[in-house]
Design goal:
The protein is mainly beta. The chain has one domain: Lipocalin, CATH 2.40.128. It is about 10% helix and about 40% strand. It has two helices and eleven strands. Strands 3-4-5-7-8-9-10-11 form an eight-stranded antiparallel β-barrel. A hairpin with a 7-residue loop joins strand 8 and strand 9. The longest helix is centred in the first third of the chain and has 15 residues.
Length: about 190
């Protein structure tokens, strides 16, 4: 009877456990660079977890500061493991404070939750890590941010913002659109790790 019970418990564990299929950030990066990436990557279709196996994301973790266009930027990047629902990813998330010349805060997302965060990571494109940014969405301020640490100095990072060009603007929600200045510059900005 004891053996039957043990076999039953063992079989129940096997049936209830769903195998986790792990892929790497490198595999998904390589897939995106394939000429047929729009058709999918059949060898990666069953992945349930995209893992940072080589710890490439660790280089971005921490507090970074820089100045650009009279603004002071402080960005906190944090690595989160197995984030998501259907397919889990290791990702970088970022929160930011921007101050003007006088030191007044003009933007602060430090207290935002993970579901309403400024930056959330996607994947690598060669040496750059691509993140999505949403600032003032009513004024069409969203797009991709490319971050990359310098080879000769890993304590320096370049950040480049490519604003989305598509979207519907509702002038009632962004009445100052003609004079609106995006939070992030469209040129490369250098940040230093603190």
């Amino acid at each position: 009877m004891k053996n039957i019970l043990l076999i039953f418990v063992f079989l129940l564990c096997i049936i209830s456990c769903k195998a986790q299929v792990i892929g790497t950030l490198e595999q998904l990066e390589e897939c995106a660079m394939r000429p047929n990436h729009d058709e999918g990557c059949p060898d990666l279709e069953n992945i349930t977890y995209v893992k940072d196996t080589n710890n490439r994301l660790n280089q971005f973790v921490g507090t970074w500061k820089g100045n650009y266009g009279g603004k002071q930027y402080e960005i906190h990047f944090e690595k989160k493991l197995q984030f998501g629902e259907d397919v889990k990813w290791d990702r970088i998330f970022g929160k930011m404070v921007i101050k003007n010349n006088s030191g007044n805060i003009i933007y602060n997302s430090m207290n935002e939750t993970d579901t309403n965060i400024s930056f959330f990571g996607d994947n690598f494109q060669k040496r750059s890590y691509v993140m999505h940014f949403v600032g003032n969405y009513n004024c069409l301020e969203s797009g991709d941010v490319f971050i990359e640490t310098k080879l000769n100095n890993p304590n320096e990072m370049t950040l480049f913002y490519s604003q989305d060009k598509d979207g519907l603007l509702n002038p009632a929600k962004c009445p100052n659109f003609s004079s609106f200045t995006p939070l992030l510059p469209g040129d490369k900005m250098t940040l230093t790790k603190q």
